[in-house]
Automatic annotation (TrEMBL):
Native source species: Dreissena polymorpha (Zebra mussel)
SUPFAM superfamilies for this protein: Fibrinogen C-terminal domain-like
GO cellular component, one term: extracellular space
Taxonomic classification: Eukaryota, Metazoa, Spiralia, Lophotrochozoa, Mollusca
Domain Fibrinogen C-terminal residues, every copy: 1-120
Top-level taxonomic group: Eukaryota
Protein name: Fibrinogen C-terminal domain-containing protein
């Protein structure tokens, strides 16, 4: 898996994962994320590995999905929220934008993110 991130100052970062597996529906699409490389700090694996997917109306962390405005592999909410609100850069609200904790933090919504998955 490859995740591309860009802020409004056109700083571009990439996170690559050699292993990304989405589990079956019966296990709420549990994530397996491993083997990181890239030019951004790995905010994804520590917080979102081995976690079930939650949406606003389903999943173990549905209150996080409601609070942070999108479905994701939440675990005690998030360090990465690439499905958050598009808030166009710096904002006052907490962690509800498109964010990657160790790249611009919770009070900055990224300009662009793209998650690419290649089958093996």
């Amino acid at each position: 898996m490859r995740i591309e991130l860009q802020d409004f100052e056109n700083d571009y970062r990439v996170a690559k994962y050699g292993r990304f597996v989405v589990g079956p529906e019966s296990d709420l699409y549990r994530s397996t994320i491993a083997f990181f490389s890239g030019n951004v700090t790995n905010s994804l694996t520590p917080a979102h590995n081995n976690v079930q997917f939650s949406t606003v109306d389903n999943g173990p962390e549905s209150t996080c999905a409601q609070s942070f405005k999108g479905g994701f592999w939440y675990n005690d909410c998030h360090a990465v929220n690439i499905n958050g609100l598009y808030l166009k850069g710096k904002h006052d609200s907490f962690a509800d934008g498109v964010n990657w904790l160790d790249f611009r933090g919770y009070h900055y919504s990224l300009k662009f993110t793209e998650m690419k998955i290649r089958p093996h």
